[in-house]
Amino acid sequence: MLSRLGQIGFRLWHARRGVTAVEFGFVCVPLIGIMIATMQVATTYFSQQALETAAEKGARLLLTGQAQHAGMSAGAFKSAVCSALPTYMTCDNLLIDVDVADDFSAATTTAPTITYDAEGNPNNVFRYNTGSPNEIIVVRTMYVWSVQKGFFAFDISTMTGNRRLLMSTAVFRAENYS
């Protein structure tokens, strides 16, 4: 009986049928994990670039004085910036801070600490000071982006609740539009 088991073990050890399927099983899970992580990073960077483009269009309204001459409110300015975002990004996650700086070195360009209400929505109060001609204006455009944790502890979130803060900052001297 031992010799019979030895023969079966020998045949199993040297059998090659199904080896490809077993090897693919070993490689499949990490490969899928890497592909999902790559797609997550790619969509995050694509969304960051979309935010940069929308923020640039909004900053141009302030740079040229169009927003000031139109008497654009904070809500109207946010709507103008939001209209430049792709359709998969919602206006509810968009946060905008506009303020005036005394000089370029005093401009606040760091990311703010986002606070949340009981429902998990950001409840920060941001400034909307559009300034006057020839003043230095700082426009911080932020977007709370939802991300998912991936395989192997892959996590690109920078905030609580699987969120990442995407941010674009523009610091410029307004034109003499008066």
Short recap of the structure:
With 178 residues, the chain is an alpha+beta fold. It contains 4 helices and 3 strands, in the order H-H-H-H-E-E-E.
Tell me what the structure shows.
The chain is elongated. The protein has a three-stranded antiparallel β-sheet. The protein is an alpha+beta fold and about 180 residues long. It has one domain. Helices cover about 40% and strands about 15% of the residues. It is built from four helices and three strands, in the order ααααβββ. The longest helix has about 45 residues, at about 20-65. About 15% of the residues are buried.
What are the key terms here?
alpha+beta; 3-stranded antiparallel β-sheet; 178 residues; 4 helices
Structural class: alpha+beta
Strand content: 15-25%
CA(first)-CA(last) distance: 102 Å
How many beta-strand runs? 3
Give the overall shape, derived from the CA principal axes: elongated
Helix content: 25-40%
Secondary structure layout:
Layout: H1 2-14, H2 19-63, H3 66-69, H4 74-82, E1 94-101, E2 136-146, E3 163-173
Antiparallel strand pairs: 1-2, 2-3
Helix pairs in contact: 2-4
